[in-house]
From TrEMBL:
This is Nucleoside diphosphate kinase. The lineage of its organism: Bacteria, Bacillati, Actinomycetota, Actinomycetes, Micrococcales. ATP binds at K10, F58, R86, T92, R103, N117. Residues 2-139 form the Nucleoside diphosphate kinase-like domain. It catalyses: a ribonucleoside 5'-diphosphate + ATP = a ribonucleoside 5'-triphosphate + ADP; a 2'-deoxyribonucleoside 5'-diphosphate + ATP = a 2'-deoxyribonucleoside 5'-triphosphate + ADP. It comes from Nostocoides veronense. Belongs to the NDK family. It is an enzyme of class 2 (transferase). The keyword Kinase applies. Homotetramer. PANTHER family: NUCLEOSIDE DIPHOSPHATE KINASE.
Length: 140
């Protein structure tokens, strides 16, 4: 089934100049770009986006990190692109992520309070719909 997923190129990926690399990997996989914007997230938007993590030990460092600079928010489209992008991204911990994945090729542990891992991708159709409404409220 054709799906949409919400991808974020996080502040570390943006600052390191990996935006084009990530978009190229999405396109080479065959997914379409439906919407793209660059913005510095507010803590309020992040509280909505990361609602499932509020109260966890890494939540405050996560919001500090995610609001520290520009991110690129992207809506991608394609058959099973939610699972497909999670596979392109690799597992959450960039030290463990497989080489060939975005996190495996470009991520590492920097000894910081939160895992900086280049990208976010929605983890279910319900999350994708919720997240797209947060980042692209006008998108049909
Ligand atoms: P994401 O939501 O960003 O696509 O990543 P994910 O599903 O692989 O990971 P999730 O469990 O949803 O966690 C969201 C983000 O929080 C940071 N994190 N740090 N123990 C830690 O230091 C820790 N755990 C999670 C990561 O940036 C993770 O992507
Ligand atoms: Mg997640």
């Amino acid at each position: 089934m054709t799906e949409r997923s919400l991808v974020l190129i996080k502040p570390d990926g943006f600052a390191r100049g990996l935006t084009g690399e990530v978009l190229a990997r999405i396109e080479r996989k065959g997914y379409r770009l439906a919407a793209v914007q660059i913005l510095t997230p507010t803590r309020e938007a992040l509280a909505e986006h990361y609602a499932e993590h509020v109260g966890k030990p890494f939540y405050e460092p996560l919001v500090d990190f995610m609001s520290s600079g520009p991110v690129t928010a992207v809506v991608i489209e394609g058959e099973r692109c939610i699972e497909g992008f999670r596979s392109l991204a690799g597992t959450t911990d960039p030290t463990k992520a497989a080489p060939g994945s975005i996190r495996g090729d470009f991520g590492r542990d920097w000894g910081k309070a939160v895992q900086e891992n280049i990208v976010h991708g929605s983890d279910s159709p319900e999350s994708a719909a919720r997240e797209i409404a947060i980042w692209f409220p006008g998108l049909a």
